[in-house]
Amino acid sequence: MQRIRSKSKLMLWAGLFCLGPTVSGPQVQAQTLTYTDIANRLIDLQYLATLPEPGITTKEFSSYDRASTYNAATDAYVNWFANADASGTVNGNLLAEMSRPGVIWVCWAASSSGSLMPTYFNGAGNPSTNLTFEDLFGGIAPFNYSKLSYHCPTAGGDCYVPIPYSSSCRITGRNDYFHFCYTSFPANAVLPTWQSGSTEEKATLTRINNFLANNIGTDPAGARPGEITEIDTIRIGSGVGAVSTIKILRGGPGVITALKVKASNVTTGNRTIDRVKLRELSLRIFWDNDVTPSVWAPLGDFFGTAFGYNPYKSVPLGMTASEFYSYWYMPYKDSAKIQLLNDGSTADTVIFTIVHSAVQNINNLARFHAKWHRDFLLPTRTDRNQSANGGCVDWTVCKVTGRGRYVGTMQCDHNPNGGWWGEGDEKFFVDGEKFPSWFGTGNEDYFGYAWGAEDTFTRSFNNQPFVQGEQMASLNRFHIPDQIPFQTSFEGCIEKYFPNSAPDLRAVTAYWYMAPGGTDPYLQLPVTDRIPYFVTTYQVPPATTWKDPYKDNVAVAPEKKVAFSELQKRFKAYVNRAGMLMVHVPQGVNGKVQLFDPRGGVPRVSMPIDREGKCAISTSSLTNGSYLLRVVTPQGISTGNIVIAD
User: Fold this and answer.
1) What is the Cα–Cα distance from 292 to 274, expressed in whole angstroms?
2) Are residues 172 and 237 in the same domain?
3) b/e per residue, 261-273, with b = 16+ CB within 10 A?
4) Is 115 a residue whose pLDDT tops 90?
5) Which of 120, 200, 345, 615 could make an S-S bridge to 593, C-beta 3.0–4.6 Å?
6) DSSP secondary structure string, 423-451?
7) CB contact at 8 A, 362 and 474
């Protein structure tokens, strides 16, 4: 074991990345934040471990389909999987309305075009800004920070430039497919208002953008006073249940600030071998003599990606040619025990680097949790889970009780028959909400891109390190500035449109912080749950045979029939047994398919045509009757009437 101690002197970081005011106890104290304090939270991993202050919330405004509602009188979720997500607004042209001091952390849109968005800060009668999404994503001042504001791989873009306001914010306009993720503070908080490029804003954002451009993959905090770096070579045996303790840290309070694995010890360069090996090996961490681990995940999944070794770099996690790294800030009061498990048939030697130091104010710090699972704690009520009939489900990513912050999602989908798996919306229920305060517009939208992406990409907060057409994908999103605080409970879901029998098989690693004593229900899972489902050819059981929407050429025993008028002469369309309306156009045609009520108005559904000229639309929320089907392509617009009937 190599042991390296840093010099006990104040490091330069202390002056560069301040944490903002310290909070202690449950009392609400007035906060005063400068723009520098706010922007520093883009890369402040230590702040995530502080227990959330009462009265601070993080929510999302989006264009989700307002047909999805909750009826409190009947305790029923109505049209819960409605999918006309292009045109939902708060009211008319009101896109978002925040009534307390706050910060917009993330702006996302599926298209960088669109109308102007007059935005009113602090009750102003005239617009404080009047921007389009292209202004946010296009690299033009004051958003000219390439690692914070950029176009998505296929269309649209993300903007992580923080936009604060001192008392309120109203965003108006008309735009398809948008998200605004924001934090609200108590009314007595003192925050600045966005100045569209003040000297302080430019200096702070330039410094952070430079770090993300040149130093991502290192700890944003730099070296801490008195930190210790230990390098341990671990020999672990083979066979199901083999365990080797990497490190036991005692004499807390302390904190692990970096955990790394030498890449050459756990990768071979052969994807077939590596994707199995990185699921056979798993990481387990216990805090403060707990009998159940707070961290358990397959080794590769813990570091943010699945299906083997996939290089990428983000702020908290990444894989490089030399190492897998984690900079999650992981405090403990008394002790930390880190273990490596091996359920494979081959013994391994693995080299770990662990950086740790002493910590103060442990009573105000939560414990880090990371858990991997598949299909656990899914809703049992049928208005949120229609998977038994081949329909959608609010697929549970993380469901815990206690006080803490939700900080990240790593998701992988195995969808061997193809077909677009990513249509489902994310829904985050905080502190017992019946209707989620975070309701998105699509799986890929949540992960920071749009219209599907068949190429890998890597960003500071969201990545697709691996993708194989529409058959396999591994994605992550880390909520660093936009962490979601909760006081009593958190339930995060992402809709899953295709059933397991398709097959569309999903797994996640959820990352969160929680005070000691909270309920973490996630247990270690056997290797049989982690590997066979994606390395063998999936055979659909005869009793649940399900036709894949993108590969059906004819409707076999359909549950619903579709009658066509003139449209049938040019395009193939039908409803398959999974309840999906399939529209086929010539391969290579780009565009979208829209479904309207006969009287017109906004589309009930608007879905893109994929590269093979196919589009799948769920009919689960549609009643029997006539609809207007419109196919919009660069070659023109074709319309026709269809009738959906049992």
Assistant:
1) 28
2) no
3) bbbeebbeeeeee
4) no
5) 615
6) -PPEEEEETT-SS-SEE-S-HHHHTT--S
7) no
**257 contacts 327 by C-beta, under 8 angstroms:** yes
Q: Are residues 238 and 266 in the same domain?
A: yes
- Domain with 586 in it: 561-645
The dihedrals phi and psi of 102, each to the nearest 5 degrees, come to -170, -175
| Residue 448, φ and ψ in degrees, nearest 5 | 90, 20
Token readout for 460 is: 């500071």
Looking at per-residue pLDDT, the higher value among 413 and 627 belongs to 413
Cα–Cα distances (Å) from 17 to 501, 540, 549, in that order, read 49, 53, 50
Is the CA virtual torsion 14, 17, 23, 28 positive or negative? positive
Strands 367-373 vs 295-298: parallel, antiparallel or unpaired: parallel
Q: What is the pLDDT of residue 586?
A: 63
Q: Would you say residue 533 lies in a domain?
A: no
Six-digit token string for 633: 């392509």
pLDDT at 541: 34
Angle ∠(187,402,369) on CA atoms, nearest 5: 110
| Domain C-terminal end among 347, 365, 383 | 365
Boundary residue ending a domain (165, 192, 214)? 214
Q: Are 103 and 124 in contact (CB under 8 A)?
A: no
> 128 and 198 share a domain?
yes
- Picking from 64-68, 150-154, 394-398, 451-455, which range would have the lowest pLDDT averaged per residue? 451-455
Q: What is the total count of domains within the chain?
A: 3
Query: Using one digit for the tens of pLDDT, what is the confidence trace for 333-345?
Result: 999 999 999 999 9
Within-domain flag for 90: yes
Give the closest residue to 190 by CA, choosing from 102, 59, 58.
102
**DSSP for 53-91?**
PTT-EEEEEE---TT-EEETTTTEEESTT---TTS--SB
Residue 108 has what pLDDT? Answer: 96
Pair 269, 208 in one domain: no
Nearest to 145 by CA among 159, 163, 130: 159
Q: Which residue's entry shows tokens 């907060």?
A: 461
Phi, psi of 200 (to 5 degrees): -65, -45
3-state helix/strand/coil string of 165-198: ECCCEEEECCCCCEEEEEEECCCCCECCCCCCCC
Q: Are 308 and 278 in contact (CB under 8 A)?
A: yes
